[in-house]
Design brief:
mainly alpha, two-stranded antiparallel ribbon, 63% helix
């Protein structure tokens, strides 16, 4: 329902109002329990030899609780969905087009390029059935296969993973959230400053 209201509201907005909507949604993201507690993808792998075999364990003391993560994703996914008025790439493009300060514009251009590169790369090279997965594809498995939509193909991929693979894939998913959130907050700082200083052309 929130997404539908945002789309309806955005359709009647001018440039300043669209950017303000983005900032308001970012503030909602900042106020989630995940952000208040600290979003982290930290993971430690510990191994010990048991007889002839190795026992591998994953220690994830700072990973978000599932209820908190699901609540966080309700707002976060709007920034990575092309259909949403606060879609991050839409905000990059709108800012680049309307910023009157060349320095701020260059910051946005640089951030957009780096974000595009980050989406297509994974910190770890992860494959499924021989296909190398990008960071945004790994994130999509969790968002569309587990938390929302229940896409059957993506859900099946997650179900096919053994424990160790699942933990590594989830680590990459959380890493995507950390990286994306950093770019969202960075863009928001520029947007807020530009609006306050009157550096946006209508």
């Amino acid at each position: 329902m929130l997404s539908i209201r945002l789309k309806a509201k955005a359709a009647r907005m001018n440039v300043i109002q669209q950017l303000q909507l983005f900032s308001e949604t970012v503030d909602e993201l900042r106020n989630t329990n995940v952000m208040k507690k600290g979003l982290s993808s930290d993971m430690t792998i510990k191994s010990s030899k048991v007889g002839e075999n190795w026992d591998v364990r994953f220690v994830t003391p700072k990973w978000p609780e599932e209820d908190d993560l699901r609540s966080f994703l309700l707002t976060f996914r709007m920034f990575i969905s092309e259909k949403e008025p606060v879609f991050l790439n839409r905000i990059f493009n709108l800012s680049i087009k309307t910023l009157t300060d060349d320095r701020l514009k260059s910051f946005m251009i640089d951030a957009k390029e780096k974000w595009k590169k980050a989406e297509g790369e994974a910190v770890l090279s992860l494959k499924y059935q021989g296909k190398l997965l990008t960071l945004d594809q790994i994130a999509s498995l969790w968002i569309s296969g587990k938390y929302f939509h229940k896409d059957p193909d993506k859900r099946q991929i997650l179900q096919d993973l053994d424990y160790h693979s699942e933990m590594i894939f989830k680590h990459q998913f959380l890493d995507f959230l950390v990286i994306a959130t950093n770019y969202i907050f960075y863009a928001d700082r520029i947007v807020k400053h530009a609006i306050k200083e009157g550096l946006i052309k209508e």
